[in-house]
Amino acid sequence: MGKSRLEAFSDGVIAIIITIMVLELKVPEGHSLAALLPLTPVLLSYVLSFGYVGIYWNNHHHMLLISHKVSGAALWANLHLLFWLSLFPFTTAWMGENHVAAAPTAVYGAVLLMAAVAYWVLQQALVAADGSDSALRRAIGSDWKGKLSPALYLAGIALTFWQPWAAQLVYALTALLWLIPDRRIESVVQE
């Protein structure tokens, strides 16, 4: 099966996720910049989640760029990933509205963790569809970021019961880890 429908569907769902997140932002009461101050936690949660959705979209694009086949298992794995990403607007709003509360921060971390697991499952399904000597398998390599991220999310979830702000910092630092350019796929494409 070709990958164009999978890409188009995923792009559409991700665009809707971003749209829903921005629609959750409420206009401040008042016309001064000071009116934005009470919305700072909501805006920061939005920026973090927008970054995460962008990271997933970018990596999804690169992963499909070097994949050649899409199996039924990959289609289901992709839906699994999109399911967890579709929860970002809800968890973003909940965490933003409740600033540094433990439960929303823990649930946000759990959704991040499950999205990371779902991405790994999709990656494995695409490798299986293309074969173990695929370009994607070579590009993945040791995947230290992919292995470190779930551990950081688990640490963040545990931190929520001590200091929720520290957990949010861990989530932000993990996103920054992924913003550092990863040349693995580009190097395989140039081979």
TrEMBL record:
Membrane topology: Multi-pass membrane protein
Keywords annotated in UniProt: Ion channel, Ion transport, Membrane, Potassium, Potassium channel, Potassium transport, Transmembrane, Transmembrane helix, Transport
Membrane-spanning parts: 6-23, 35-55, 101-122
Subcellular location, record wording: Membrane
Main location: membrane
Reactions listed under catalytic activity: K(+)(in) = K(+)(out)
UniProt feature coiled coil, ranges: none
Pfam family, one: TMEM175
Keyword rRNA-binding in annotation: no
Top-level taxon: Bacteria
UniProt-listed InterPro entries: TMEM175-like
Protein family membership: Belongs to the TMEM175 family.
UniProt protein name: DUF1211 domain-containing protein
Species in which this protein is naturally found: Rhodanobacter panaciterrae
